[in-house]
Structures are given as C-alpha cells and as structure tokens.
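Collaborator request, handled under Task 6.
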Amino acid sequence: MENQEQEVLYSDISGDDYRKPQEIESMCMNCQANGITKLLLTRIPHYKEVILMSFHCTECGFSNNEIQSGGKIQEQGVRLEVVVKNNRDLSRQVVKSDYAHISIPELDLEIPQFSQKGEITTVEGILTRTITALGQDQPVRLHMEPEAYKTIKGYIEKIEEVLEMKKEFRLILEDPSGNSFIENPLAPATDPALKSKNFIRSKAQDHALGLYTAEEVETQEEHDARVQKEGEPVALTEEQLKEEVLHFDTNCPECNAPATTNMKMTNIPFFKEVVIMATVCDACGNKTNEVKSGAGIEKMGKKITLKVEDPSDLNRDILKSETCSIAISELEFEMGGMALGGRFTTVEGLLENMQEQIEKNSIWGAGDATAPDVQDRMAQFKEKFNLIKSGEEPFTLILDDPAGNSYLQNLYAPDPDPNMLIEEYERTFDQNEDLGLNDMKTENYQES
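Structure tokens returned to the collaborator:
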C-alpha cells in the first residue's frame, strides 16, 4: 500500500533504537558443521550504510567477523592520509573494505588488497592486529629460524614504540571502491591531520572490482549486430540542442533500479551555458539533479565570497559546479565539491542541500555511537546552522572553484555587488592534477 510506512533497512547505530541482528544457519568453513551467521544492517555516523557479519560455530568454536559496504561501488576511488600524533588519533575509527590498501611509510608496513577481510577497527587496532599476526609463529621461528625470529622481534618492538606514541607517523589508506573511511574527531570542522582525495580508477582497478564496459564484455558478433541495429545517429543542430530535452537511460544511485535522466542546455545571464540533468526513480521515488558547465575549464580558478547580511540574500541564484568547495567561516565548516555535486539553486536551497547531506551521513543525531564531546559540538553546530539558514544571523559564504565554473547572482549587475567579492587565481599543481590538466596536451598533440 502507498500509505504504508517504508521499511528502514539501514538504521543509525543507537542504544535507543536497537535492532536485533538477523540469524542465518550456515556451514562452518573449518569443520563443515552448521553454525550461525548474524547480519546487522546499520549506518555508521559520518560515513554510510554497511553490513556487519559475525559467524560462530558451536561445534569447533571457530568464529569470523567482517564488514561489507551496503551501498554501491563509488564513482571514484578514495585516498585517505592521516597523521597520528597522540593517543586520541590512535582511537580514530577506521572502516576498511576488502579492496583497501593500507601503508605506514615510517614502519615500511603495507597491508595489500584482499589480504584481510573488510572490518571496522581503529588505527591502534590495525597495528595490534599486525603485531598478533607477526608474533603468531615466533615460538617456532625461535628454534627453526633464529635469524628470522630476531628480525621479526625487532620489527614488532618498532611497532610497539609507535603504539606508545614515541614518534608520530602517517597512515595511508587507498581504496579504489571508495568505500573506506577514517574518522574525523573534529567534525563538522576540517581536520588538519586528515587529507582526503578522490581519484579516477584505472582500467585494471575497474576490472579488479568486477566493473567492465559493454564493449569489453560483448562479442564481435554482438557488436556488429548492435551497430547494424542502431544505425547512424541523427545529428542535432546547435539551436535544436538548446531547445531539446534529451533523455538517456541510467540506474538510480540509491536502489540501482533502471531510471531515465532528462538533460537540457540553458544559458545563465552574465555567466555561461550550463547543462541541467534531473533523474526521478519510479521504483524508490529518489530524485536527483545535477548541473555541469557547458563550456570547458576556465584558465583561472575562481573564489566567490558573499556576506549574507539580509534574508533577501538567501534568494540569490547560485550555480555550484562539482569541483567547487563550500565554506562558512562563522561555523568553521567546509564541504568538498564532490559531496553535493553540481547544483543550480538559491543560497537558501544550497543550505538545505548541505543540511540534507549532513543529516544523511548522521553527523548529528547519531545517538550513543558518538563521543560525548563530539555530540555536544554537533548540537551547538546544528543550532547555529539553523539560525543561519533562517536568515536570523549574518554569515559569510565562500565558494572556491578551481575550474572557475561556479556562479553567484549579482543583484546589482552589471555594476559591482558591494557584498560580493570575486577573485581569480592561478591553480596549484595539485589542483591541475585533480582536474586532469597536467597530462593534457592541446598543441602539437600529433607528436609522440
């Protein structure tokens, strides 16, 4: 029935809303007897949906715990680097998928992909598990391989010194699936010790994740039949393209059901042409919209600073590209461009989108899964954010777009806006690298 409340599959971790895990009888891989697997679908604060699995065999006592992502493989991989300086950093939560590669350069330690199952742990837990694995066969090595015993014993002592925080170190986690996570204890403020960077997967990484294009899986006969069936595409003129609403098939980002995306080109006064895309899923009702620049990347990056002093400023039109980060200095809050994607809305609408994204990731209301100091800071942040969103408190909105494809409405156009500052700047090497410009050759490209 349409009026029935939709069942919540992934609920937040909370002592107030405890959900009993599902129990499934399954075979023990150690003794082949029947054991019990427990499944719990939950949402980790500041992260996303996960499936926790626990197996125990009453016959032989064998047990196994692991974690799998409850969502889809992300569009880009993620590289996380954290500098561990104190005991609080050792207790940072770490969600590691099967595809994650972990390294600690100061210890020459590497944990390759697929060498361990996905798990929820801490930085300290990763090092402790490494010590346990290395020390497991030490009694045998003492008699059989004394030299190897001494080498591994020295390495274990080196890890133990790090656990005592005698020196700081870096932990680097790289996950092509994009489904790994390291806790930010300062959320919603930016964590200076944690760096996060998304990257485009290589073809080999796509294949390792089981991702193949249609051209890679179809046979030559299927390819020939498809080309013959499709025939020559009909080319649209530039004027027809501006008036036409184009449609193409896609999959819903929430439930992965087949859906249709509508796309149209439009022109924003005093700015440029943009492409607006909207998707509605008939299966789950999810709605998404995204905006992309119809032109290329600008020669200079652009930083827009707006002082919102009157509630009318909340009605300004705003175009935020997917490369544009958002900051509100009064809240000490920053949000990367990929978090919201491209949006064409108003300042008030953008604040609504930000709040939806924050609540979706359980940044507040996370129950007893959040540390008390973090929970108090979240409550203060939420109260101040609501005052800003309602126009009761002035604030400064900063849009920083390295691609230069973002726009904020000037109410005094074509004259300068006294409350808005637009700065153009030279991009850094890392920003050009993220935009794929460092390896792009636009002149004499026919040369090797």
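The cover message to the collaborator said: "The radius of gyration is 26 Å. The CA atoms of residues 47 and 361 lie 6 Å apart. Please let us know whether this matches your experimental observations."
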